């Protein structure tokens, strides 16, 4: 492999880190997956942070050993990012105002620009630049996994809201006695009924039978299980409400659905299309499609953001 300029890209997940060395043309010269340590509240998620720092440093060392020049580093994480201070609050990582950007800068100890961004926004940015949302100026990436968040493209720009934007999963769509408590502290969030984790949890609560995640719920749905059908219909209804609201407010031309639930394919997409179509009156109707970059979307978005920063600094 000929030496070239690269960026280090890391997508930190609750169980795994997806990592890469990515060239300016988007070619992934090296990719690997590392386990994320279990977060411990007693040390404020320090083990997770240390593993992230070690990964970034070692990827940089690997690039240098192979003769590459590291131009920038992109790290994307879940949670709420305070863009001004570079801190992160992430419940599943046990981070509360954790100074992730400062820790990265100290660990790298080199004059290399570092981008810290939200994992879903990074995934949406990758879909926008090279995936299912390419060619759009108003669109949304909506991964449905353990949780739900959105990446919003508005007037050709990724909306960050200073690190707070896109938490569609924590909008209230369920009311009354059916509203369940969400991890965020609110009742009736979209995430409590339409995430992959919610499908398994709600099926178990309804039947008293534990299932192996959303995958098994979908298998039961295909086999005609009425309880799986009820849980699925509840999820679809809430998702349709969310998509109609977003369409009314922001007028996307395309919505790309990703995350683990996209494995359901047209069993998910067609009811969403039909449900949104039936509800719209004057609004511009969006295409609803499957995201195409899969599990690498966050890492590829981190790389693209890192290259953007490197190019901005070179032009300054």
Please explain how this structure is put together.
The chain is an alpha/beta fold and 316 residues long. It has helices spanning 46-65, 100-108, 119-130, 191-194, 196-207, 213-222, 226-250, 266-279, 297-315; strands spanning 5-12, 16-23, 28-35, 69-77, 80-82, 87-90, 95-98, 114-118, 139-143, 151-154, 157-158, 254-258, 287-290. Strands 3-2-1-4-8 form a 5-stranded mixed β-sheet, with helices on both faces. Strands 11-10-9-12-13 form a 5-stranded mixed β-sheet, sandwiched between helices. Strand 2 and strand 3 (28-35) form a beta hairpin. Helix 3 (119-130) packs across helix 9 and helix 5 (196-207) runs antiparallel to helix 7. The longest helix has 25 residues, at 226-250. The radius of gyration is 20 Å and the shape is globular. The mean pLDDT is 94.
- Strand arrangement in the largest pleated sheet: 3-2-1-4-8
**Radius of gyration over C-alpha positions, nearest whole angstrom:** 20 Å
Q: How many angstroms does the end-to-end distance come to? A: 31 Å
Number of strands: 13
Order of helices and strands: EEEHEEEEHEHEEEHHHHEHEH
* Helical content (DSSP H or I, runs of 4+): 25-40%
- Average pLDDT level: 94
Number of continuous helical runs: 9
Largest sheet: 5 strands, mixed
Low-confidence stretches: none
Described by the principal axes of the CA atoms, the overall outline is: globular
């Amino acid at each position: 492999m000929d030496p070239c300029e690269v960026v280090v890209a890391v997508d930190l997940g609750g169980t795994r880190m997806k990592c890469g060395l990515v060239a300016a043309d988007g070619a992934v010269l090296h990719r690997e997956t590392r386990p994320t340590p279990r977060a411990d509240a007693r040390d404020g998620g320090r083990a997770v942070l240390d593993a992230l720092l070690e990964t970034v440093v070692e990827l940089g060392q690997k690039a240098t050993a192979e003769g590459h020049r590291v131009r920038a580093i992109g790290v994307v994480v879940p949670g709420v990012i305070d863009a001004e201070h570079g801190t992160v609050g992430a419940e599943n990582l046990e981070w509360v105002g954790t100074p992730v950007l400062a820790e990265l800068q100290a660990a790298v100890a080199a004059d290399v620009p570092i981008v810290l961004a939200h994992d879903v926004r990074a995934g949406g940015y990758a879909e926008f630049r090279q995936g299912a949302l390419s060619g759009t100026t108003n669109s949304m990436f909506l991964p449905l996994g353990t949780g739900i968040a959105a990446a919003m493209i508005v007037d050709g720009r990724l909306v960050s809201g200073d690190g707070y934007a896109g938490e569609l999963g924590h909008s209230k769509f369920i009311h009354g006695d059916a509203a369940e408590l969400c991890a965020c502290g609110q009742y009736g969030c979209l995430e409590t009924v339409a995430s992959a984790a919610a499908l398994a949890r709600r099926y178990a609560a309804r039947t008293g039978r534990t299932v192996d995640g959303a995958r098994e719920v979908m298998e039961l749905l295909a086999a005609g299980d009425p309880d799986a059908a009820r849980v699925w219909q509840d999820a679809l209804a809430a998702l349709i409400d969310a998509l109609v609201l977003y369409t009314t407010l922001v007028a996307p031309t395309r919505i790309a659905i990703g995350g683990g639930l996209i494995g359901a394919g047209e069993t998910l997409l067609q009811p969403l299309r039909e449900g949104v179509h039936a509800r719209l009156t004057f609004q511009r109707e969006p295409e609803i499609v499957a995201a195409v970059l899969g599990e690498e979307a966050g890492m590829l978005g981190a790389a693209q953001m890192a290259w953007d920063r490197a190019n901005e600094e070179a032009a300054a």
